[in-house]
# Entry
Amino acid sequence: MALVAATPLHSPVVSVSCRQLEGRTLKTSFLQPRAVVPFSIRSWNLSAPADRLRGDSRRSRRTNRNLTAIRSQDGKAGLESQDDFPDMSTEEFNRRFTLPHLNDLFNVQPMRSTFCTKSSCPLPSETNNSSSRWEDLRKVFVHDDDRVLLKTIKYANPTSSGAECFDEDCNFHHQWVPRAGPRSKIYFDPSEVKAAIVTCGGLCPGLNDVIRQIVLTLDVYGVKRMLGITYGYRGFFEESLEPIVLTRHLVQNIHLAGGSLLGVSRGGAKTSDIVDTLQEKGINMLFVLGGNGTHAGANAIHEEARRRRMKLAVVGVPKTIDNDILLMDKTFGFDTAVEEAQRAINTAYIEANSAYNGIGIVKLMGRQSGFIAMHASLASGQVDVCLIPEVPFALDGGHGVLQHIQHLIEERGKAVICVAEGAGQDLLPTNNGTDPSGNPILGDIGTHLQREIKKYFKAASITVDIKYIDPTYMIRACRANASDGILCAVLGQNAVHGAFAGYSGITVGIANNHYVYLPIPEVISHARNVDPDSRMWHRCLTSTGQPDFIANSS
Ligand SMILES: Nc1ncnc2c1ncn2[C@@H]1O[C@H](COP(=O)(O)OP(=O)(O)OP(=O)(O)O)[C@@H](O)[C@H]1O
Ligand SMILES: O=P(O)(O)OC[C@H]1O[C@](O)(CO)[C@@H](O)[C@@H]1O
Ligand SMILES: [Mg+2]
# Structure
């Protein structure tokens, strides 16, 4: 292949990955842990309240007192202070993760649950405890005191990859959160329930599945009045937007299509207007499907309803293909998005592989979090360079992306790049604009990369064939895959069980493969990010073979 002579382009790590390709030994230094400092910042992400969650506020608490030498795995000594670890006593954790309940304000007498999946369901009027038909139902219910362990790894040392520690010895803290599911006692009489569902933010595979499961479950409890609020929070105050009456029959097949039966929107949410409408319509159960913004809105509605002493249960179901909600294994729609994304990557690979010096670029969603890009890169096994918002990179210089791409072209005659939309924003002119919900409007890193690569190879007089693929909306407007379909079913059903159990201001999730209820503020204090020191990111790097694209080096 006729190429200009290569300069020593790549960092030692690049040559390691290329040698690996040539069947030679992989240097062990490739995945060595980084410096000591970042480890305890990560633990902030997971459990501290919003005002203590930011690394900078943590750093400001750094003092010279009580400094302890900690030896990292690579033998370098680092200094950490107990002050640098978040305070997380069991009492503090339990206080924060106690679910708000209607009986914090009222004295609602619970009744026997009307939820029943047996063929011979007892009537609610059958109150005899010893009735054999009630006995039959015993194992249907989850006990109020059932708990799920939020964290399951006992880290030996704060320098372990992904370690979340509360002290320098990484002592294990039991963090138990309430198990989700139907309770034997309920705090709403189904005949008095008027439920509403709203879907907000961007689309996400599985929205219709969740709507459907909420309706079906409400129906099993015996709820007759169910409304779908149209076009997100907007549907609460725009007079032209009428709610849809929801029935089992109406939702029966909606999961066969992507999108949202109810429609979505961004912006325009005024809590007091929303709560006015809820009051006017006599809605006492509200199911809110959306991301961080939507959940912030749901929590504001919950707080305002409490202030007005309304008996309203507000329950969220986290929706985001970005997977950027804290404390959960994953959010619904993410799996499907990854599956679709890797199809786009495969296309880019085939194009790049078939072209003379082919370069495929795929831009994927992920405003602040690179989970889709990381997982799709890993899943496809066809990506040479994965760029995410959490890991800064340089385009130029001896350790920059462009030289690495030149190296890939020279070595293999092709390169595939997967970039998350929020990556490399520092390389683009700032745009200070926001969307109607206040989310920042990002610069287009995909087309920027395309332009820069074109310019670079032109200057180097190397012919390349660049194909740019932006499957942005294709990965989220599709129908949920089987694994998301199941997740949606469980989450939708658990949302209804949570409302009947009398909880409000909560959301549903999956933690360590078990289903849990969490207080909304704990999951939205900031966006969940890819941890650059995590095993998963290192697995991605192992797979792509990409080096650190270190800035300011030549
Ligand atoms: N802090 C907040 N308080 C009250 N309402 C909010 C808040 N942030 C956003 N909202 C409202 O929530 C709705 C959805 O917000 P947003 O558009 O940010 O989507 P999202 O739920 O974060 O989902 P996505 O992941 O698609 O961004 C909008 O109507 C917005 O006005
Ligand atoms: O174009 P829209 O509808 O604002 O949505 C784009 C955003 O939606 C998200 O997928 C979150 O739902 C982000 O990754 C992306 O930036
Ligand atoms: Mg948002």
